[in-house]
Amino acid sequence: MLFSEEKLDEYLIDEIEELLVSQQVEVCKKDRVYDVDWERYLSIPDLTRIYTMRENKKLVGYSSFLMHRHFHYKNDMYASNDAIYIHHDYRKGGTGREFITFCGVRLAEEGVNVITISVKPKKDFSKMLLEIGYDLEETVYLKRI
To answer: How many CB atoms lie within 10 A of CB 50?
Structure first.
């Protein structure tokens, strides 16, 4: 399995779009459909980090982060996980754990000192995050109006 950081371009977008089909089924509620604003991502390349997981050049997982200074903690550089997905066929043997650790190391090399990752109740991997050093910081609720 090869982990790497990749620049977002039309080819990577096409590969991610293929994974979004299975991600939609596994993670999203039935009334929600992905409609990614790729132009917005492409407009902020300095703030976006895309990490990929490939097997024999095939994209089997990805994680995207948005980097920013926090309004309440101006000395901290945050990397907020915007999306993470690993195809279910590639989640065995600690691969997810290794991938998230890889992302954290790369982000730290860029000066990030706080990483946030949201977990959906439908696919809760909180236990694994706690095992690799993440702390439960807050719980977020959402209401559509």
So the answer is: 22
- Please state, in angstroms and rounded to a whole number, the distance separating the CA atoms of residues 16 and 120: 19
DSSP 8-class letter at 76 = P
Spatial contact of 66 and 48, defined as CB atoms under 8 Å apart: yes
- Phi first, then psi, for residue 140 (nearest 5°) are -115, 135
Q: Tell me: the pLDDT tens digits for 14-67? A: 999 999 878 877 776 677 777 889 999 999 999 999 999 999 999 999 999 999
Predicted TM-score (pTM) of this structure: 0.92
Q: Which DSSP state fits 145?
A: -
* Domains recognised in the chain with CATH numbers: 2-131 (3.40.630.30)
Please, are residues 1 and 55 in contact by the beta-carbon 8 Å criterion? yes
